[in-house]
């Protein structure tokens, strides 16, 4: 099995020669507007990947996330899993990319679904997060096959749905069916946009909850006859502002989270609503609101106890219930994922870090993502620890207008991915 310099150079050259093909594939993927929500065109995108890999001898399966939130005949949650076996048994390396993208939103200077190429970059919604990464991984595995460098083991590529909305219909669904467990798979690389020179070993935890305060309606000119739910929520916000946010800022982590600002515990107020609806043209009527709802997004650290994360909020709410006249509340958990972090010296971490150093001529940086991604399902449901994110996109551009991926970065990341496979295949 040649891992020597000659084979490596041939592999790198092969990938370099396929630069235009890599750009074309990225553009083709961007042109399929797999917007989530609602989950448009998933089947078209899954089939583009499936057809391409079937032509290279992969066994291709389409697995629909039946029963997942949002799955319907109009918006089927179509995942694709492609696998090719080497002539001898050995480890399996799996590349997993999510095919869904967030809505384009405002502020674009180019068509978000045209795949515009300019200044050495491909622009479009999903270019960075993460169709550029999917394209790079496909070119990487094709180059390995072209060079006859799959003597043992297996390679898998999957295109999965709904990562942006929790991944339940995608990697979560496949993991439950055993697609992300041993003995089928040994190493997983997720080409999320964490920058071409960094290995992402995990993510912080997340806890989303909805708080509802209750009151009693009355005429707005006599608020003392009612009980204002919005003022109660104001009291909750005040406690979050004055007590919780400073306390969270003091909780620092040993996780190498990027950007630096996320190397602590955080809370975001995702949404707040109280009183009459605003989506009408007329004047409002004078009412004391009897309900106010707020959604909070709490991101926490591997050093924190998940129970404590909830208890901090409950303590504030219970204290208000005891001490604030007329205060009533309800707390509902919306979503929860534990923090995860792969060992710094796990095989996939070492292989990708070494490949980065070879390709880019500089040491790799280990990072942790501020937000979660599909690694949580691989680790928790699939019980597979040897999983990282590595891809060409620039983290800060994800979900932004004029999102792009650098073409040089895609080529380099494809070389890193291919070299990583070679060393993982030879590691046992
Ligand atoms: Zn992503």
UniProtKB/TrEMBL annotation:
Q: Enumerate the GO terms in the molecular function aspect.
A: hydrolase activity; metal ion binding
**SUPFAM superfamilies of this UniProt entry?**
Bacterial exopeptidase dimerisation domain, Zn-dependent exopeptidases
Q: What keywords are annotated for this sequence in UniProt?
A: Cobalt, Hydrolase, Metal-binding, Zinc
Q: Which InterPro entries match?
A: ArgE/DapE, Bact_exopeptidase_dim_dom, Peptidase_M20, Peptidase_M20_dimer, Peptidase_M20A
- Name the cofactor(s): Co(2+); Zn(2+)
Checking Pfam families in the record gives: M20_dimer, Peptidase_M20
In this chain the Peptidase M20 dimerisation domain maps to: 201-320
Family label: Belongs to the peptidase M20A family.
The protein, known as:
Succinyl-diaminopimelate desuccinylase
Read off the lineage from the record: Bacteria, Pseudomonadati, Pseudomonadota, Alphaproteobacteria, Rhodospirillales
